[in-house]
Specification:
With 196 residues, the protein is mainly α. The protein is built from 6 helices and 6 strands. The strands form 2 sheets. The chain has a 3-stranded mixed β-sheet, covered by helices on one side. A 3-stranded antiparallel β-sheet has the order 3-2-6. A hairpin with a 4-residue loop joins strand 4 (165-168) and strand 5. The longest helix is centred in the C-terminal third of the chain and has 33 residues, at 123-155. The radius of gyration is 25 Å and the shape is elongated. The two termini are 21 Å apart.
């Protein structure tokens, strides 16, 4: 369904095709030309490059991925990782001898998965543990981004699809779908192609 001037959009969260800046809400206005241009962009069909998708998925499933390196696996900070940090920075390592099952049975507030979660470390070691957690969170964030992009591409494989767009207060046009569009990351841009 094409947009009409003054009509609410079913795609936009703000029920308007123009995403207003909070302090300029009353100053952004649409025009017939803007609506026509957005409708033109919305009528462009896209497909997934199936051959490339097959190659990328095979690489994703490989133990030694060429394209993704180790980004095709989730990572977790383990007791062994924290133990190595403690040894590296000369911190007490007696906590590794905690009986995890006994600790969980005696603990009333929460169950823990790793022994290091039950230990009060000094600020120096906490800093290094948090730094490692941040690295793993960054890694896992990329993992989920790639996985979601590949899943969406697989769902739209061999189909024509359309990307509804919205406009910001400056007049810049953006697709509403997050993962799979022509303005997303390298992986999505490689997979999305014009329908012929």
């Amino acid at each position: 369904k094409p947009y009409l001037l003054g009509e609410a959009s079913i795609y936009s969260l703000s029920n308007n095709i123009i995403k207003h800046r909070y302090n300029l809400k009353d100053q952004s206005e649409g025009s017939d030309m803007l609506i026509h241009n957005i409708n033109t962009v919305n009528n462009v069909g896209y497909t997934i490059n199936s051959d490339l998708l097959d190659i990328i998925i095979n690489d994703w499933l490989s133990d030694k991925s060429i394209l993704f390196g180790d980004l095709n696996t989730l990572k977790v900070l383990t007791d062994e990782d924290v133990y190595k940090l403690c040894e590296k920075y000369n911190h007490n390592t007696d906590w590794i001898n905690i009986d995890l099952e006994k600790w969980n049975a005696e603990s009333l507030d929460r169950k823990i998965t790793f022994k290091y979660e039950s230990v009060e470390f000094d600020s120096k070691i906490k800093f290094f543990i948090n730094r490692e957690k941040n690295k793993l969170n960054s890694h896992n964030s990329k993992y989920w981004y790639f996985l979601n992009t590949l899943k969406f591409a697989w769902l739209y494989k061999n189909q024509t699809f359309y990307l509804p767009c919205t406009v910001d207060f400056r007049g810049r046009v953006y697709p509403i779908p997050n993962f799979l569009n022509h303005l997303a990351g390298d992986l999505a841009r490689a997979l999305v192609q014009f329908d012929t």
